[in-house]
Amino acid sequence: MSEAVVVSAVSGSREKELFLKLPWKFYGGNPAWVPPMLFDVRKQTDPKQGDFFKHSQAEFFLARRGREIVGRIAAMHNRRHLAANPDGAGFFGFFECEDNAETARALLTVAEAWLREQGLKVARGPANFSIQDEAGVLLDGFEHTPMAGMGYTPPYYRALIEAAGYGKAKDLHVCRIDWANWNADQYDRIMAVANRMAPGVKVRELNMKDLPGEAGRLAEVFAEAWRENWGAQPISQAEFLKYAEQYRLFIDPRTVLFAERDGEPLAIMVAIPDMNEIIQRIDGRMFPLGWWHLLTKRKKLKGIRLFLLGVKTKARLLGLPALFMRNMHALLKASDYESLEFSWILEDNQETLALVKRLGGKRVQTLRLYDKAL
Fold first, then answer.
1. What mean pLDDT, rounded, does the chain reach?
2. pLDDT > 70: what percent of the chain?
3. What is the DSSP string of 159-179?
4. 3-state SS, residue 130
5. Using one digit for the tens of pLDDT, what is the confidence trace for 44-61?
6. Preceding omega of 253 cis (within 30 degrees of 0)
7. Do residues 274 and 305 lie in contact, with contact meaning Cβ atoms separated by under 8 Å?
8. Homologous superfamily of 176-369
9. Which of 25, 43, 50, 114 counts the highest number of beta carbons within 10 A?
10. Measuring CA to CA, how many Å separate 210 from each of 106, 205, 215, 241?
11. Radius of gyration of the chain (CA)
12. What is this structure's pTM?
């Protein structure tokens, strides 16, 4: 008879390292998996350094069977989510588990109890801090390597979570347009209509010499465009600026776009080169030579991940997302980039899904977020 699974809170730096490095146990040898950047996730999960802990709380847990670590989970009380979405939801995330329903149930039960103690009414996940971070259980497309900032889970996670009483909250679609499959005829028709619908609108690239001002414009549009989006929480000017400064070396200004009329930003598009192409090769480690690969190979990447696309309310009938695609079309045509990924897109965002399909894109993966009433 096997030993019972015991779940306990992470205590001390040694256990924290065991928590952070556990994914290698379950994904080692999987050619599609991209390891986390240890230095980054180490900082973000540190209550003394992580941005999340400036406004919210989390607890981290490990599951053991005897001396063997067989799973992990985090429970998160995200106050910024609740301020924007008064739905009573707390989150579970950083979920990794052996293919064993007992282990998964034990992990989820402990996380649920912690969330209940915080006065929360719903357990939602998996999401690493919020749905704007790595989120969801992969339902299909396991052969595809995730792009930067996207998660990856094994096929059996769906059954484990559903067996613990969780039901679908929302599906997130991952869509890609490969340059070789770009539908030129549809593109020309879309551009002709978009040009007529948006007179006086100009699309420009990110100005790297004015990052504070650009961060303010991004925050302005984001606040309005995502106000009613399911599960979204605001991103401030200071946060946009911090991200820009932190990842300055890896930003391609051609993939961060503003649609403006008379100097007013009406829409934004934020995309990043797929750093996962390098992170996978260096196994998530900066030392001894990971940093060198990141610096020297960052301009040779093939994929772009588009993760923010928003339009102010008054401009939603102007076809501005289509205008952004004109820039992306020109970039893919003239550069070494080969594919553009939209990730993720809410399953009920029919406008964006239709645009991607018309341009020759297709859904390559589906991620699912789950809910359980507490």
1. 94
2. 99
3. HHHHHTT-EEEEEEEEEEEEG
4. coil
5. 999 999 999 999 999 999
6. no
7. yes
8. Gcn5-related N-acetyltransferase (GNAT) (3.40.630.30)
9. 114
10. 50, 12, 9, 10
11. 21
12. 0.95
What pLDDT, in 10s, does the model give residues 188-221? Answer: 999 998 889 999 999 999 999 999 999 999 999 9
Per-residue pLDDT tens digits for 275-329: 999 989 888 877 777 778 777 888 889 999 999 999 999 999 999 999 999 999 9
- Burial code (b: 16+ CB inside 10 Å, e: under 16) for 218-250 equals bbebbeebbeebebbbebebeebbebbeeeeeb
How do strand 89-97 and strand 122-125 relate by DSSP bridges?
A: parallel
Residue 262, both tokens? 């008379």
Q: Give the CATH superfamily of 5-172.
A: Gcn5-related N-acetyltransferase (GNAT) (3.40.630.30)
Q: Which two tokens stand for residue 136?
A: 């969801």
Question: What CA–CA distance (Å, rounded) separates 340 from 332?
Answer: 8
Residues of the chain with CATH 3.40.630.30: 5-172, 176-369
Rounded Cα distance, 308 and 234, in Å: 12
